[in-house]
Amino acid sequence: MTSRSGPSSTSSDLTLAATHRAEWGRLLSLLVARTRRLDLAEDALGEAFARAAERWPADGMPTNAAGWLYTTANRIIVGRLRAEAIAGRKAPLLAVRPDWTPPDNPEDEMESADDRLHLILLCCHPALAKESQSALALRLVIGTPTEQIARLFLVPTPTMAARLTRAKKKIVGTGIPLGAPVADELRSRLDEVCRTIYLAFTAGYTPGTGPDLLRVDLAGDAVHLAAVLHQVAPEAPQPRALLALLTLQHSRRDARANDGELVTLADQDRTEWHHDEIAVGLQLVDTLGQGEGYTEQLRLQALIAAAHARSRHAADTDWREIAGHYRELEALTGSAIVRLNRAVAVAEAQSPQHGLALLADVKDVLGDHHRFAAVCGDLAVRAGDVELARASYLAALDLCDNEAERRHIRARLAELD
Hints:
Layout: H1 9-35, H2 38-59, H3 65-87, H4 115-123, H5 130-142, H6 146-153, H7 157-174, H8 183-204, H9 216-232, H10 237-250, E1 257-258, E2 261-262, H11 275-286, H12 293-309, H13 319-333, H14 336-349, H15 352-359, H16 363-366, H17 370-383, H18 386-399, H19 403-416
Helix pairs in contact: 1-2, 1-3, 1-4, 2-3, 4-5, 5-7, 5-8, 6-7, 8-9, 8-10, 9-10, 10-11, 10-12, 11-12, 12-13, 13-14, 14-15, 15-17, 17-18, 18-19
């Protein structure tokens, strides 16, 4: 790791950002396995990235960026463990299964599964509170900012920060093991693991503050994890349905934006969809039987994605079928977000007035969500209610933090004028 390229602030920043996206979860799982200290490992890895941001522009990038970060973080942990020993403190250790051995080199890949999957399984341990499991996995495995996780879960940022802190303390204090759980234990966690991977995928298409409209790399990581989980548990229905859903949704990635501007589903160039991936996703969908609980939720969402994927043109979309699937999904989940999506489908299948009527019941829940206001604006335009459309778009502008989405909303407002 001593060989370095010449210094370049721009290239080192790009390399560091790419390494954070690609390697955070894998490096963290290796550090936890080696040191058995989740509490120290997360802080040390964050410190290693901070040191890289300071040193790489001046010293040049290491040839093995991930290896440099792993070694630096490991040394930080060792230093803090020595300080603890000197002070006579004994913090609880994180137990590791005796039959699981981490690779010595962070560049080595495990043959059976992605390293990050082990960390997801750890975060989804039943000893942790349900509302914290997926959120903790997003924070540790993907490195998703707490603010964005809070937005995904529709809770205030301080509330989410407190949940994450409690969950991490619970893992360290109770010695929850790291490593792939066996047989029945794995099956008992599949719902939460699938839910976590789907949330990670959603985060890639739910931009936070800043200029980026999409995080295709993050969504791609989630698709990869879904494939790994399906490989680990090929007979389980949840991973199969999840992989079908994500494969179909991700196949549209290249058509979702044009020069940094949002492109709606109706306006997307469908020749840019990845039709080889669509074929794989549709094959998986055809193997899905009706299920229960979260398995059925994933199946219904996969059927919705399949209905879009089979339509060569936007006008060919069977919106009545999609609205029916959303109706079933809402009955299962009671989700306000599902109602929002159902309203869009009903507006297409019946009328925008029918769609607006469906939104009335969830205004109290989603009133501070910019997409709710934006959808209200779109449906109001089609219903001929210009004043409601204007008020809705202005509300969406106030609530939206993403620059690309704000430009899209402004364009809608300009069309009203």
